[in-house]
Structure formats: structure tokens, C-alpha cells
């Protein structure tokens, strides 16, 4: 988590950032007399860039897209900003949003500013082990319950009725991730064509639509000192659609084993419930039919493989900031194989 001085932050020229915020952040805790700014890149993200900016006494979080190779439908700052703003006041904890700038001339890309929430994005089992199995189980249970809370929010009641097109969501997802793969492919991938064909041939009837996070996992949550979920982060792929895609992606994150030393393994900590219990708790609390979960897991594997291949592409072209990107590419084909197995009932 390298700290940069003013004017030396990759993707975040602090002088231009300050001028824009002082001019446009009405209502934000950003007085004209704020002291000299410093920033650091927050580790952990593999897609959008996240910075902590401070004037020495207060801090803010800034989010912007990667420095290069931005796909047309990815890294939408206004989407993240809108959904978090809409969810304020619901049962889903989100940071307070302060300012959205869609002018790419300021930082070279759109960005937004939000509250810095205190909490821990648990990523590794070694971080959770000191808490003990009982606390780990409680955190995991709240993670599942928060997902159910999200899927219970009525989009129309929070101003998100037009946030997506739920009808035909699964079919479009299969098509979209194939298109994204073609746009980021840097090599031949064994299993990609087979998994895509299986997904096309096995699309089930869709679950009743809801707000979908798109990348729900433990390290995209901030857990407070009281072990409660303090904030849900990283909404760049949020939309309206089939909420079982969120559950399936969470299951894939829990079960995957890859050659990457950068992968999160928090769900292997003692006390964390196995996938079967996660499915049972979600089913009981949501009342949704999970009989086609194999398809959703296959789709989640395909989606995560495509995202990983895109990160691998940017890494090869020197367009990433931070560490841990060198091994991401090795995770792609194992994910494709896991997706094929899920569609075949394994």
C-alpha cells in the first residue's frame, strides 16, 4: 500500500482532483481549507482502482477505472455511485456517497468520492483464525443474510426500476461474457468453447428479479469491530436480474482452488460454513428455488474466468497498479473446467 505525494499518484493527479472537488462537491465534507493532500492505492482490488485520500485529519475514498484496456460495459462509475446512493437507508449497509465526476478530462476517466468506512475486508484465513470459530461463523452468517437483504429490496422503491432489464437476464449474461472474453483474449483457452456451449443449451427459468451485486464475496464487505457488516463495496457490476447469480458466484469463490498465491482463502477458516450450509441458509431465508444451482455455478465460473483473463490481459500490457497480478492468468482454465463439471452435475 504505497503512499504517493501530491501529483505522483498513478491515475489520480491530486492537484486537479482537489480543484474539481472544491468546485463541485456540494454538501461533501470537503472544506476549501483542507490541508495538503496525500493518497495511497488501496490493495485488494483487481479491477477498478481504489484510493484513500487524506488531508491529514480526514480521509475519503476515490474510485476510478483501470488505467487501460477498459471494456465498453465494464468499470461504470455512475453505476456504482447510483446504486450505493439508492441503497442508503435500506437494510443493506453502504458508504455515504459525496460526488460523481463523469468528465474524463479531470483524471483521465470518470470517478467518484465516498465515505471511508472503518472495517476489515477479510481476505485470508490467517486474518480470521485469531477471531475463533464462533465469531467466524457469525460473520459468515451475516454475510449471507446481507445478501438476502439486498435481494429483498424493491428496486422501484429506491429509484432503481430502470437500473437493468431483468427479462432474459441469464441469456444476455451468457452472451455478454462470451463477448467480453473475445475482447480480452490473449491466448487459446482449453474449455472456453465447451463451457459456453453448455451454458447456452441449459438456461433455466429465471428466479424472480432483484438488485444483483455482481461480485459478492467476503472481501468485498467491510466487517466492523462488532463483527457486523459495516459496508458492501465494489458495485461496478450491479444491475437488475436473477439474484441466484450472486449466490453462485459466492459459492465459486468459496470452493475454488487455484495456483494463485494472491487468491483469497478466508472461507477456509475454522468456523466458516461449507457451501452446502450457505445454500441452505440462503434458501431458507429467501424462499427461492435453488434446484438449478448447477447452471448458476457454471455461469459464475465462466464469468470469473473471463474477468481473470481480462486482468491477465491488462497485466501483460503493463496496465495494472499494485501487486498480485502475475498469477491471475493461471486461474482461468481451472475455472473453465469447474464450470463444465457444474453443468454436467458434478
UniProtKB/TrEMBL annotation:
Signal peptide: none annotated. It comes from the Bacteria. SUPFAM superfamilies: Protein kinase-like (PK-like) (SSF56112). This is Phosphotransferase family protein. Residues 39-268 form the Aminoglycoside phosphotransferase domain. The lineage of its organism: Bacteria, Bacillati, Actinomycetota, Actinomycetes, Streptosporangiales. It comes from Actinomadura napierensis. InterPro entries: ACAD10-like, ACAD10_11_N, Aminoglycoside_PTrfase, Kinase-like_dom_sf. Transmembrane segments: none annotated. Pfam families: APH.
Amino acid at each position: 500500500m504505497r503512499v504517493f505525494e501530491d501529483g505522483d499518484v498513478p491515475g489520480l493527479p491530486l492537484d486537479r482532483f482537489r480543484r474539481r472537488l472544491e468546485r463541485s462537491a456540494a454538501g461533501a465534507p470537503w472544506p476549501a481549507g483542507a490541508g495538503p493532500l496525500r493518497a495511497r492505492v488501496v490493495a485488494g482490488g483487481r479491477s477498478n482502482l481504489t484510493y484513500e485520500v487524506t488531508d491529514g485529519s480526514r480521509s475519503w475514498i476515490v474510485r476510478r477505472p483501470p488505467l487501460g484496456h477498459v471494456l465498453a460495459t465494464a468499470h461504470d462509475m455512475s453505476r456504482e455511485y447510483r446504486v450505493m446512493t439508492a441503497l442508503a437507508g435500506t437494510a443493506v449497509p453502504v458508504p455515504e456517497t459525496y460526488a460523481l465526476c463523469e468528465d474524463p478530462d479531470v483524471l483521465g476517466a470518470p470517478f467518484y468520492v465516498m465515505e471511508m468506512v472503518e472495517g476489515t475486508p477479510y481476505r485470508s484465513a490467517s486474518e480470521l483464525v485469531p477471531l475463533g470459530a464462533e465469531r467466524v461463523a457469525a460473520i459468515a452468517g451475516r454475510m449471507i443474510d446481507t445478501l438476502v437483504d439486498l435481494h429483498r429490496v424493491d428496486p422501484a422503491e429506491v429509484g432503481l426500476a430502470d437500473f437493468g432489464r431483468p427479462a432474459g437476464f441469464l441469456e444476455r449474461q451468457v452472451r455478454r461474457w462470451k463477448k467480453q472474453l473475445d475482447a480480452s483474449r490473449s491466448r487459446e483457452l482449453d474449455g472456453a468453447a465447451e463451457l459456453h456451449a453448455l451454458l447456452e443449451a441449459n438456461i433455466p427459468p429465471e428466479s424472480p428479479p432483484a438488485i444483483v451485486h455482481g461480485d459478492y464475496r467476503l472481501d468485498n464487505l467491510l466487517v466492523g469491530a462488532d463483527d457486523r457488516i459495516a459496508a458492501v463495496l465494489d458495485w461496478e457490476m450491479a444491475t437488475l436480474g436473477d439474484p441466484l447469480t450472486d449466490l453462485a458466484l459466492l459459492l465459486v469463490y468459496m470452493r475454488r482452488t487455484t495456483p494463485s498465491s494472491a487468491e483469497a482463502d478466508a472461507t477456509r477458516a475454522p468456523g466458516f460454513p461449507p457451501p452446502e450450509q450457505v445454500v441452505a441458509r440462503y434458501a431458507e431465508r429467501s424462499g427461492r428455488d435453488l434446484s438449478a444451482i448447477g447452471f448458476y455455478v457454471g455461469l459464475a465460473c465462466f464469468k470469473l474466468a473471463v474477468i481473470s483473463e481480462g486482468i491477465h490481459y491488462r497485466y501483460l500490457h503493463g496496465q495494472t497498479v499494485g501487486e498480485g497480478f502475475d498469477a491471475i492468468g493461471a486461474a482461468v482454465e481451472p475455472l473453465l473446467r469447474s464450470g463444465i463439471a457444474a453443468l454436467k452435475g458434478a
